[in-house]
Amino acid sequence: MRNGRLPVDGAKLYYEVRGSGPALLMIVGAGGDGGMYDGLADVLSDAFTVITYDRRGNARSTGRGVATTLAQQASDAKALINELAGGKALVFGNSGGAIVGLTLAAQHPEAVRGLIAHEPPAVLALPEGDPEREWFNKMGELYAAKGPAATGAAFGASVRGEGTYAWPESMAWRAAGSAEQLFGTEWPMWSGFVPDYEALSKAEFPIVLGAGSADRGTYYARPSLLIAQRIGAAWAEFPGIHLEFIPRPAIFGAALRALATTMQSRISSVPEQWTSEA
Question: For the whole prediction, is pTM greater than 0.90?
């Protein structure tokens, strides 16, 4: 594994690169950092060049306390792809990272070889009148009334499976330090996200949305199917819960490996080493 910090507009992004093969950029969601993907990246590094990073303002990246937008987050992801993947990569995003991935696919399609968006909590994709369209607004009101600790506890309680396993200690410590960034700075961009359905439906690369088998009916899993239906994309069921890849990276990785490998094989030629006589 090698790491570094990539200067972008207003921040330096901490990143890690593992393995070899087709580039796979993994985007983490709200309140987390690239450490969430450590186990998963190790599992996939025999087949992919796996790029993980801390989004601006979070954990080991700089830029904390400064307002950010999804357009800026997508631009950051594109900069990493340009610097570390030669300008084009497969992209996987979980939760808010799936929202960033969808924004990247809509705004910078030239950088995306294929997108896998796992459980984007795009509550505004839910039908008018659905009470869960107000979930982010209610969390915002709780933050204004009681601050980041109470809001963080309520946020965690809303995600199935959280509390049934332990986050790696170093990652949990970094996440606690990023709570104010999440609720005080990033919250408006998550709460206001509406997919660019027109741009996504015109994508010339494969897009797959998906959700975990244990998450049916949740505010963060339901939008995936609705978005897929609206843009004419494929949808896939993944194993387990929202952050299944933390406690069980091998199980989640087996599903992601199959999907990403299929995606890659359909859009590129056979690797040179397999066409030689050696």
Answer: yes
- When pLDDT is averaged across residues 28-32 and rounded to a whole number, the result is 91
Both tokens of 148, joined, read 């980041």
**Does 271 fall in a domain?**
no
Which CATH number do you get for residue 176? 3.40.50.1820
The predicted-structure confidence for 116-157, as pLDDT tens digits, reads as follows: 999 999 999 999 999 999 999 999 999 999 998 899 899 999
Q: How far apart, in Å, are the Cα atoms of 188 and each of 183, 218, 242? A: 9, 21, 22
The 10s digit of each residue's pLDDT in 166-181 is 887 787 778 777 888 8
CB-CB contact of 30 with 96 (8 Å) = yes
Task: Give pLDDT, residue 169.
Answer: 78
The DSSP element (H or E) to which 189 belongs, if any, is helix 187-191
Inside any domain, residue 192:
yes
Chain centroid to CA 90:
12
Asked if 15 and 25 touch (Cβ cutoff 8 Å), the reply is no
**CB-based burial label for 258 (10 Å; 0-12, 13-18, 19+):** exposed
Which residue range forms the structural domain that includes residue 20?
2-266
The rounded distance, in Å, linking the Cα atoms of 43 and 255 is 11
Q: Which residues contact 43 (CB under 8 A, 6 or more apart)?
A: 249, 250, 253, 257
275 domain-assigned = no
